[in-house]
Amino acid sequence: MFASTTPLAAASSSGGGYSLVIFLLLMGAVFYFLLIRPQQRRQRQQRTLIDSVEVGDEVMTIGGIYGTVRELDDDSVTLEVAPGVDIRFAKTAVARKLVYDDGYEEGEGSEEGSEEPEQREAGEQS
To answer: pLDDT of 14-43, one tens digit each?
Structure first.
């Protein structure tokens, strides 16, 4: 009695088994393109960021702490967050590498009253 109301039973009883397979394949493709690929891209970008960090770079951690890289290990990074204050973090805790733009790009001049350089994330499109 209830078997005829479920989509699976209806598809198999009406000979539409192929439509169920096609539906499952389409759902798999949707999950792949909307969930799996973007996550892999984020992981690849994070690995590239961590590999590009060098001594002297200014970074921000996932906890929002800004600092200058003073020492690098295989698994950790030591940041100077204030004069004489060093904190050791896991390398994976680095969220952003800060890049300072001096405002003198080709075809652009500096604006009046702009004393401080702009701050951008590494890899950000301008």
So the answer is: 557 899 999 999 999 999 999 999 999 999
CB 69 within 8 A of CB 55: yes
Q: How far, in whole angstroms, is CA 98 from its chain's centroid?
A: 15
Q: What is the largest CA-CA distance in the chain?
A: 79
> By the 8 A CB rule, do 41 and 35 touch?
no
**Predicted model pTM:** 0.57
Burial (CB count <10 Å: 0-12, 13-18, 19+), residue 91: middle
Q: At 79, give phi and psi (nearest 5°).
A: -110, 140
Confidence of residue 72 (pLDDT cuts 50, 70, 90): very high
Which 8-state DSSP code applies to residue 75?
S
d(CA 101, CA 105): 9
Q: Which of 42, 5, 45, 8 is nearest to 23 (CA)?
A: 8
